[in-house]
């Protein structure tokens, strides 16, 4: 479904991605692990069009994404939950969710946010909203509350819910468990499995490599901008290099 071939990204003199290649097949959870600064966020940012590639190619199915800006990649079915969530804290939960359907808004040529109230009443948008509220009943309970007043776990649910409002085929998540209590991390990872079982394809960057590999079908280990190791989750969990470098004693 997604294919990244020899992606290179530089920030000035820093080569953040060095010919990184990966594939994600339809209906898989694929995880990207590696130490701090390995280039994981940069790879997600380049797929979603937030940072440009210096060289290399990205395809979604047979359509080339290379060079497309983020507002175009979301229209093609990619939804991104960035590190740090980037919610609009002073806006309500419902309005944050509404913004997640903005691509459908622009598809339908309603470019002004002033139309969102009207737009939200459209059956397709309402259906997405109902799906999000079914997945996260707490968001329905809190729909009129300011996003900034939610707990960390609720904010993460809102960030994922907002991404789902674009009715994506694939969701990319950058460290969704950051700052969450262990039981909430489990909840979020379980949810990703449910979404995958419902047909969504998932590319997950996660600092907790063991937890990520336990739910993923396959994984890639990044090191200094390159893909250093790849394999099925079972292979990676059993790989001595991975165990020593990234998993420590966690699965010993
Ligand atoms: P972490 O797990 O700490 O988030 P990461 O694997 O996601 O790390 P990136 O954030 O992609 O790694 O960073 C890769 C490299 O690019 C690092 O050396 C980082 O310092 C550098 N870098 C990232 N963003 C920028 C930027 N906007 N400007 C300059 N350098 C950057």
Structural domain count: 2
Straight-line distance between termini: 34 Å
Helical percentage: 25-40%
Strand order of the largest sheet: 6-7-8-3-9-10
CATH level 1 class label of the largest domain: Alpha Beta
Main sheet?
A: 6 strands, mixed
Number of E-type strands: 10
Segments where pLDDT lies below 50 for 5+ residues? Answer: none
The class by helix and strand makeup works out as: alpha/beta
Describe what you observe in this structure.
The chain has 252 residues and is an alpha/beta fold. The chain has two domains: 1-77 and 169-252, 3-Layer(aba) Sandwich (Rossmann fold); 88-167, no CATH class. It is built from twelve helices and ten strands. It has helices at residues 40-47, 70-75, 93-100, 102-107, 116-119, 123-135, 137-141, 152-164, 182-197, 209-215, 233-238, 240-247, and strands spanning 2-11, 14-24, 29-34, 55-60, 63-64, 78-81, 170-174, 201-205, 218-223, 226-232. 39% of the residues are buried. The model has no long low-confidence stretch (mean pLDDT 87). Adenosine-5'-triphosphate (ATP) binds at residues 11, 14, 16, 34, 36-42.
């Amino acid at each position: 479904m997604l294919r990244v071939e020899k992606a290179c990204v530089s920030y000035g003199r820093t080569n953040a991605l060095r010919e990184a290649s990966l594939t994600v097949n339809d209906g898989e959870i694929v995880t990207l692990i590696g130490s701090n600064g390995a280039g994981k966020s940069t790879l997600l940012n380049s797929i979603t069009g937030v940072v440009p590639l210096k060289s290399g190619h990205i395809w979604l199915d047979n359509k080339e994404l290379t060079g497309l800006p983020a507002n175009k990649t979301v229209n093609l079915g990619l939804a991104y939950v960035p590190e740090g969530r980037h919610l609009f804290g002073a806006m309500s939960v419902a309005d944050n969710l509404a913004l997640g359907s903005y691509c459908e808004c622009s598809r339908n040529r309603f470019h002004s946010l002033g139309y969102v109230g009207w737009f939200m009443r459209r059956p397709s948008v309402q259906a997405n909203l109902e799906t999000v509220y079914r997945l996260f009943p707490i968001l329905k309970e809190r729909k009129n509350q300011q996003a900034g007043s939610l707990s960390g776990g609720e904010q993460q649910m809102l960030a994922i819910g907002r991404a789902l409002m674009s009715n994506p085929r694939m969701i990319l998540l950058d460290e969704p468990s950051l700052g969450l209590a262990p039981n909430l991390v489990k909840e979020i990872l379980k949810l990703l499995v449910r979404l995958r079982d419902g047909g969504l394809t998932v590319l997950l960057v996660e600092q907790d490599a063991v937890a990520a590999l336990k739910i993923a079908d396959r994984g890639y280990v990044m090191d200094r901008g390159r893909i250093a190791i790849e394999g099925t989750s079972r292979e990676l969990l059993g790989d001595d290099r991975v165990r020593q470098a990234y998993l420590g004693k966690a699965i010993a």
